[in-house]
Amino acid sequence: MGGLATCRGSSIAQQPPQLTQRQQQLIASIHWQHGPCEAKLGSVATIKVPDGYQFTDGQGARAYQEMAAQPPNPKVLGMLLPSGDKDQWSVFFSYDDMGYVKDDEKDTIDADGILENIKAGTEESNKYRVSHGGSPMHVVGWEEKPSYSSQTHRLTWALRANDKDGDIINYNSRILGRGGVMSANLVVDPTELQTTLPTYLTLLEGFKFVPGQTHADWRQGDKVAEYGLSALVAGGALAVAAKTGLLGKLLKPLLIGGALLLGALAKAFRWITGRKPATEDGTNPNLESQSPPAPASVPEATSPSPDKPAPESPPTP
């Protein structure tokens, strides 16, 4: 890793306007590592932080999520974003040690079928949103259809949705490893996606699993995931529901929670940085119960801690 400096740290330099006291405490607690350096993503991977960018670990990223009125993700390992105020976007890294994901579906991903299910799930979850004082959300379609690179073992896709406040875009990347999958999700204003995308993809070139944890390092006896590429796009709950015989009952309400949660966070990001003012009591009009509570806990409950090896030895992929 020659030429990379040790990350230098700092707390956030200034308080964004219109934050509550609790939000100010959270943002002050975030410890930033400033590039150029290489930052650790737990014990499984690293990411290069270029000059002009900053990174915080899982604890800092969860503080940011709480500040943005979102449930902190226990699996998030870090957050990378540009320094300063010029560019307002970020990348969240999280890891699921679900096991080795086979990529034999790379040429047969049914984008239309997945989209139909996600749309249906969104409409079903709108009942929850409306009943809890929120506004309905509607999936428009693919901003970018799912695609997989055998060279980088990276699965990418983007969804466009909208609600009463405008468009929401989720740009998702899943990088397959030996024992699980790293998510690298871009949170960006929809109007800035196309200008930000080249920079985001360049940043991902600085990602790598630690030696022994790449997709190519899989060995007989390693844990194998219960689902493949299509289920990664639709959401891990799809595989769990199918396996337990609850697919028909659970598919719709479960899919939307994982699929569009970051859309709400994107809105929170715009609000925190001043693009949408908060109300006088410090609440955010963009974050009114947009998704059901923690539906992702269904698949997550089947996975051990990212820092612990899987106990079982699944079948050969």
Task: Describe the overall structure.
- It is a single chain.
- 44% of the residues are buried.
- The protein has one domain.
- The protein contains 8 helices and 12 strands.
- The protein has helices at 21-29, 58-67, 111-131, 193-204, 229-234, 237-243, 247-272, 297-300, and strands spanning 8-11, 31-34, 37-41, 45-49, 53-57, 76-82, 89-96, 138-149, 154-163, 166-176, 181-188, 207-209.
- It starts with 7 loop residues before the first strand and ends in a 17-residue tail after the last helix.
- Residues 1-6 and 236-317 have low confidence and may be disordered.
- The strands form 2 sheets. Strands 1-2-5-6-7-11-10-9-8 form a 9-stranded antiparallel sheet, sandwiched between helices.
Summary?
The chain is an alpha+beta fold and 317 residues long. The chain has helices at 21-29, 58-67, 111-131, 193-204, 229-234, 237-243, 247-272, 297-300; strands at residues 8-11, 31-34, 37-41, 45-49, 53-57, 76-82, 89-96, 138-149, 154-163, 166-176, 181-188, 207-209. It has a nine-stranded antiparallel sheet, with helices on both faces.
- Quaternary state of this entry equals single chain
Order of helices and strands: EHEEEEHEEHEEEEHEHHHH
Helix content: 25-40%
State Rg: 19 Å
Specify the number of helices: 8
In whole angstroms, the N-to-C terminal distance is: 32 Å
Structural class estimated from helices and strands = alpha+beta
How are the strands of the biggest sheet laid out side by side? 1-2-5-6-7-11-10-9-8
Please state the overall shape, judged from the principal axes of the Cα atoms.
globular
Stretches with pLDDT under 50, minimum 5 residues: 1-6, 236-317
Tally of distinct domains: 1
